[in-house]
């Protein structure tokens, strides 16, 4: 039902072990997979493919055929989550307190396939732009209701970010390089709760 993957698998946190993706964003994705599977009963596929090892350039192009193949082999997938970690100024700390635990704040990120100057980017067509935006907004509203201050502003950018593959595509930035791995992991319980609230319509 849910696919979790990482266009930028090498993104790490302040205390990640160099070269060990399990202490970076991939490990955080594994944590989210377990929570959604074990606590909420979703069928979740976590793709740990690495598309940015030598360079981050063209990582989205490299990830695209892999994700397309996964969708072809698993037509039951309804939600795609591309899980990232943001990069901010070194003095910025994206952390909040949730139930006594320091928790990385996160941000929903949407590609618009258009520029302000030239309008739609034809070669980056996305038939699901409005669906993607609606999904992000529902997630933002649910998060604000459950955990005020947990999320940052929804970020809008010109390109597509492979969000054209599914109406319920989410690109989520969990914390940044200034957060610890534990702060990012602590964000997965509330994130899973927010996602379940949106998907179940509760």
Description of the molecule:
This protein is an alpha/beta fold. Helices cover 33% and strands 22% of the residues. It is built from five helices and ten strands. The strands form three sheets. It has a six-stranded mixed beta sheet. A two-stranded antiparallel sheet has the order 4-5. Strand 4 (95-98) and strand 5 form a beta hairpin. Helix 1 (25-38) crosses helix 5 (188-200). The longest helix is centred in the C-terminal third of the chain and has 18 residues, at 129-146. It is globular and about 45 Å long. The model has no long low-confidence stretch (mean pLDDT 96).
Layout of secondary structure:
Elements: E1 2-5, H1 25-38, E2 44-46, H2 59-73, E3 79-86, E4 95-98, E5 101-104, E6 106-111, E7 114-115, E8 119-120, H3 129-146, E9 155-157, E10 168-176, H4 181-186, H5 188-200
Parallel strand pairs: 1-2, 1-3, 3-10, 6-9
Antiparallel strand pairs: 4-5, 6-10, 7-8
Descriptive labels:
202 residues, alpha/beta, 6-stranded mixed β-sheet, two-stranded antiparallel sheet, 5 helices, 22% strand, globular
- Our Rg estimate from Cα atoms comes to 16 Å
> Which parts are unreliable, with pLDDT below 50 for 5 consecutive residues or more?
none
List the quaternary state of the chains.
Answer: single chain
Biggest β-sheet strands, sense, barrel: 6 strands, mixed
How much helix is in the residues?
A: 25-40%
Strand elements, count: 10
- Helix/strand order, N-terminal first: EHEHEEEEEEHEEHH
Record the strand order, biggest sheet: 2-1-3-10-6-9
Q: How far apart, in Å, are the first and last alpha carbons?
A: 18 Å
The helix-and-strand class reads alpha/beta
**Residue-averaged pLDDT:** 96
Q: Strand-residue fraction?
A: 15-25%
Question: How would you sum up the global shape?
Answer: globular
The helix tally amounts to 5
């Amino acid at each position: 039902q849910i696919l979790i993957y990482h266009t930028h698998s090498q993104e790490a946190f302040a205390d990640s072990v160099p070269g060990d993706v399990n202490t970076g964003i991939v490990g955080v994705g594994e944590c989210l997979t377990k929570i959604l599977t074990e606590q909420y009963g979703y069928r979740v596929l976590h793709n740990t493919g690495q598309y940015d090892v030598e360079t981050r350039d063209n990582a989205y192009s490299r990830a695209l055929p892999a994700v397309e193949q996964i969708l072809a082999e698993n037509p039951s997938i309804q939600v795609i989550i591309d899980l990232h970690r943001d990069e901010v100024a070194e003095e910025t700390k994206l952390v909040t307190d949730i139930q006594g635990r320091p928790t990385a704040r996160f941000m929903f990120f949407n590609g618009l396939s258009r520029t302000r100057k030239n309008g739609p980017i034809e070669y980056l067509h996305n038939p699901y732009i409005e669906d993607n935006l609606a999904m992000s907004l529902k997630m933002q509203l649910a998060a604000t209701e459950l955990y005020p201050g947990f999320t940052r502003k929804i970020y809008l950018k010109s390109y597509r970010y492979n969000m054209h593959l599914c109406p319920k595509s989410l690109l989520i930035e969990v914390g940044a390089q200034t957060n610890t791995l534990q702060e990012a992991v602590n964000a997965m319980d509330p994130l899973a709760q927010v996602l379940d609230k949106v998907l179940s319509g509760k």
